[in-house]
Amino acid sequence: MPNYICLQQQEQHLGDYSIVPLRYEDRFSIMKWRNEQIYHLRQARPLTEEDQQRYFDNVVSKLYDNPKPDQILFSYLEQGICIGYGGLVHINWIDRNAEISFIMDTKLEKEHFAKHWSNFLTMLKELSFSDLNLHKIYTYAFDLRRHLYTMLEANGFVREATLKDHCFFEGEYRDVVLHSFINDRV
């Protein structure tokens, strides 16, 4: 498994759950979940295996050796089995902020959404603030899954902004909602 040179601590653990640098072996599970959940992602069309392979070969493989990558991605594991993935994207190293990205196995969404999001956020906050010394992490979400906001706010995130009519979805304009968490350790 490759390591990120920008991280001191490669893994975070929380009971049976962990985040580890994105594993190559998880790429097709991730592709499947992205295609199943395309409605809330910034993804224009379903991914093919060739698309996913190209992304891992040309983008992901270059992240590990970059001292300031624009994204840091993790496999989210339950007892060593990948059940989700995500991380920090659109990292702004000057202003020390980054957007959070996370999706989980689609079959876990209905019953375990809040649990897995909360686990992931707990580990990601530790890594973001203790290891990377970021000032702020935030979400950028199409206004399609209101239960996301409740879970974010239960995890200390604050609704920071609503971008009115910011995205075009299924024939109509929808809002984008931003939630943030600011590092209070600095």
Q: Can you walk me through this structure?
A:
- With 186 residues, the chain is of the alpha+beta class.
- Helices cover 31% and strands 35% of the residues.
- Helix 3 crosses helix 4.
- It is globular, with a radius of gyration of 16 Å.
- The model has no long low-confidence stretch (mean pLDDT 90).
Structural class: alpha+beta
H/E element sequence? EEHHEEEHEHEE
Low-confidence parts: none
Order of strands across the main sheet? 1-2-3-4-5-6-8-7
Helix percentage: 25-40%
Per DSSP E runs of 2 or more residues, the count of β-strands stands at 8
- SS summary, helix count: 4
Task: Report, as a whole number of angstroms, the end-to-end distance.
Answer: 32 Å
What is the C-alpha radius of gyration, as a whole number of Å?
Answer: 16 Å
Beta-strand content bin: 25-35%
Largest sheet: 8 strands, mixed
Shape category: globular
Q: Taking all residues together, what is the mean pLDDT?
A: 90
